Amino acid sequence: MEELICRERKGTGCAKWDNLSRNGFTRDDLCGLWVADMDFACPLSVRKAIADFADFGVFGYDSVPDGYYESFIRWQKERHGADIKKEWIRYSPGVVAAFNYLVQIFTEEGDAVIIQTPVYYPFMKAVTENGRKLVTNELVRRDGAYSIDLEDFEEKIRENGVKAFILCSPHNPVGRVWTREELEGMLSVCARYDVFVIADEIHQDFELTKKRQIPVLTLGDTLCRVAVLTAPSKTFNMAGLKNSIVQIPDETIRKRWDEYTGRLHVAQGNSIGYRAAAAAYTGGGQWLDQVLEVVRGNYELLKKILRENAPEAQLYPLEGTYLAWLDLGAYVREEELAPFLEDTCGLAFDYGKWFGGDSEGFVRVNLATEREKIEAAANALAAGIRAGSRA
Ligand SMILES: Cc1ncc(COP(=O)(O)O)c(C=O)c1O
User: Fold this and answer.
1) Which residues, other chains included, contact 9 with Cβ-Cβ below 8 Å and sequence gap of 6+?
2) Which atom of ligand 1 is nearest to the CA of 37?
3) Which residue from 16, 91, 96 has its CB within 8 A of the most atoms of ligand 1, so it is best to mutate?
4) Topology of 20-32+286-390 in CATH?
5) Using 50, 70 and 90 to split pLDDT, how confident is the model at 223?
6) Cα(243) to centroid of ligand 1, in Å?
């Protein structure tokens, strides 16, 4: 089995560890466990494909390389039991770009778009910065777990004449893998009110428990108008290569996507991204399984250190994603959270308030790094909390 390599990324110009003060933190010298990429080098298959292509050395105009579609279709079938047809697949330079394009194509200015807060913050911007009306269906937090208030979801859709829904499945940041019943519940409401569904499944390959992630495109009969977004970027740690995948089963919807992306000349990606994606889906399975084991272990370690040192800190169950959702509200007031984490503990986590909804006192911790870093961060957090409790 190939070795899983964790890199020291400080000083490499990455967003996660370098120049943190440009990204909402007060200082640069923090332990970077925030933005969602990993500290692991990509699968060997990806590094080799890029090296071979670099060796070839001609990077002229290109067509989509052989094997790109087949590798993705095989991956979806083998990992998720989804039957994806080649003609459904489109390119996007990022999942964020894709959901912005879809909002622009399938809604008009002033139209209402619904999201489920707290949620990945670009969802909100995709609504507000495109001049659409933001409608939120707050996730329900009860007894240490999150669920969906389906009645509120339907009511908000009806009352506001909602035109589109951006679904996060699995959900970032709360870590839920939605059940079949939950997905069918939401999508059948959308079908009833003719709401266009933008399903962001970028974290679909991170199944941390026995609970399987259900691709929207396997739900068949309950299907409403939908475009499903995913990417090798999150799964194989290659976000910088800008190769994301849009799956659109409906021909009329595809046609509108094609007209739009054709007009902007963004319908095709760069030649390295395609080769890397094909190599990842073909040869990256065992590498991913190792990453999942590391993330599971990191989560358990964080849980143990918190249980022993800060029992009132609430760590939510991690079913999907590699991002732990943690409530520190019992120890630190919202106004004190940034100085506490940055100045006292030396940590850069995503702040809960970035995700909207009822997230005061929360942080999101990126677990996709080596065990030692998680241990050091958890100990720094525990020491800060213990010192604060004594004060
Ligand atoms: C739910 C979700 N969608 C999209 C993205 C980013 O996608 P991209 O880098 O392809 O724009 C992220 C990254 O964290 C994410 O969590």
Assistant:
1) 16, 17, 18, 32, 39
2) 14
3) 96
4) Aspartate Aminotransferase, domain 1 (3.90.1150)
5) confident
6) 12
Is the C-beta atom of 172 inside 6 A of ligand 1? yes
**354: Cβ below 6 Å to ligand 1?**
no
116 CB near ligand 1 (under 6 Å): no
Alpha-carbon separation of residue 314 from 142, 307, 328 (angstroms): 12, 9, 7
CB of 239 within 6 A of ligand 1: the answer is: yes
Give the burial string for 64-84 (b: 16+ CB within 10 Å, else e).
eeebbbebbbebbeebbebeb
Q: How confident is the model at residue 389 (pLDDT cuts 50, 70, 90)?
A: low
Show me where the domains of the chain are located. Answer: 20-32+286-390, 46-283
Distance CA 21, CA 40 (A): 23
Q: Give the C-alpha distances (Å, rounded to integers) separating 323 from 115, 173, 271.
A: 19, 7, 30
Please name the residues in contact with 314: beta carbons below 8 A apart, sequence gap of 6 or more: 144, 326, 327, 330
Instruction: Answer whether 94 contacts ligand 1 (Cβ < 6 A).
Output: yes
- Tell me if 98 CB under 6 Å of ligand 1: no
Six token digits for residue 92: 């996007």
Q: Is 275 helix (H, G, I), strand (E, B) or coil?
A: helix
CATH fold label, 46-283: Aspartate Aminotransferase; domain 2 (3.40.640)
User: Could you tell me the pTM of the whole model?
Assistant: 0.97
Two tokens, residue 91:
């390119």
Query: Can 20-32+286-390 and 46-283 be said to share one CATH topology?
Result: no
